[in-house]
């Protein structure tokens, strides 16, 4: 006979054990409960007390929890306790099963609702989790975890604005919660509100200055806002706090790449790989840096190695597609990219894959499929919340034209001592500015500085300081000094330095007024080829006009309006216009014209530009390393069926 089997259960003993639990005398409660289940193994309440005592001490309570629900199948709390154990041990299927049983018995249990929703979300079943969070919040509107995690589930479902709202409410209840701040910052970044994301991360840093993660997140947003120097400071601070923080090393590498410091950028990537040898983001970033140098085979090796480690890493697929012409032999690449798109991807990765597949189908001449992927990529990019303000651009151009009329433009010979160092290449993006720079930079007396970010902010500053009464001469002197110092930093012994920032087409008048002996080369390309090439390119922060064909058409018309003005007011000796189609059809004639225009003797190396070893970080870095061809001229005809809104850009006399 089993000892104690016939002993009557004393309810006072149960009460005493419950009292021990309530006073956190957990070890005593566990000993007493063990003794009780030995004497009364079929008593559910004894197992329940034992399981609670073990859970609260952090012990393995699974056996006691399971025995409790076997003996007390109608006890909602018993099922909830077992569900909570599974939840805390990331056993999500078990958590869902037990918590659903608990909720069937007690539907208004807020904690069970939240835990069950958490488990569903962790299983990727966010659509099922959302109603549970909402039910919990109806019962307890101030439940911070429910607001925060409903935000997480909304992100899983692509409901970005809903996620931001949830995090804001959670933060209103708990303003100093660092996790909520981190979530809000990430969500704001996802919806494109990067400026507020900066504010949120700065607030988090104020609460926890020692967090390398927050400094790194702030650096990432600053970089996306093109506040490159500030981004560098944030990444370096993160590395000071956590020298082995891989994301900070990678972020700094991207900054250094943008600053045209490729050797240091590569060192940052290699530092990240030294910490985590299998980090696929570091491999992909290093691959892009090698591609910047024209080392495409080495870059491809890194992209493929990254995919061997993580076959679901979308940026490596994009890297493989970007730096060579795809063919039908790349069917396995296509299958892999399409497989990833069928699965849920972060927004940035989904966009990247659509652009990459668009290029694949364009390369293999399947144009309807190519356009469909490009269209999806651009529509997804709109989720970042950027808005193209047509009226604002029109007002800016009105003002520029009014400020820089013929009477305000100096003669290029008005100052014989003025610097001839700058060569400014302007035009629409994708109009051949990189090709022109590569040709000129192949001349031994020319340095290609890439896209120098200066004149946009200089124009705004000149407006402001002029309104404050500063003289035009003083403004020009200050800008001239600053800009020439920027160019001279990297020029070495070069006689000319090329700045190929395309958007400087807005500021040609200011540039000429400041530097009357600077040469301005205006690259022109067929309007529809130009706009489609922009639409087909996953640009880094170019502007929201690029993601909509109607907006692209409007932007192009404004570009035409301001460049038509420069054509009438700038001296002929200061401006040359180079048709892209003519350059690729007759490269020697037009290359000679450009070299002569910038005041240098001809050098045959300009015709071997594709072999020139230099860093190119623009979207054209692969094309400018190929021998010149005319394949991209007239490309728009392949997409005639999809571009009705761009046809109005065709000249009235041109049917092609």
SSE blueprint and pairings:
Blueprint (H helix, E strand, L loop, with lengths): L10 H12 L3 H14 L4 H13 L5 H10 L4 H13 L3 H14 L4 H13 L3 H14 L4 H13 L3 H14 L4 H13 L3 H14 L4 H13 L3 H14 L4 H13 L3 H14 L4 H13 L3 H14 L4 H9 L8 H12 L4 H17 L3 H15 L8 H14 L18 E5 L6 H9 L4 E3 L6 H13 L4 H20 L4 E4 L8 H7 L4 E6 L2 H9 L13 H21 L5 E5 H6 L1 H11 L59
Parallel strand pairs: 1-3, 1-4, 2-3, 4-5
Helix pairs in contact: 1-2, 1-3, 2-3, 3-4, 4-5, 5-6, 5-7, 6-7, 7-8, 8-9, 9-10, 10-11, 11-12, 12-13, 13-14, 13-15, 14-15, 15-16, 15-17, 16-17, 17-18, 18-19, 19-21, 20-21, 21-22, 23-29, 28-29
Name the CATH superfamily classification of the domain at 392-649: P-loop containing nucleotide triphosphate hydrolases
Our count of helices gives: 31
- Cα-atom radius of gyration: 32 Å
So what's the overall shape?
Answer: elongated
Please state how the strands of the largest beta sheet are arranged side by side: 2-3-1-4-5
**CATH architectural name of the domain at 392-649:** 3-Layer(aba) Sandwich
Structural class: mainly alpha
Helix content: 55-70%
CATH topology of the domain at 392-649: Rossmann fold
Number of E-type strands: 5
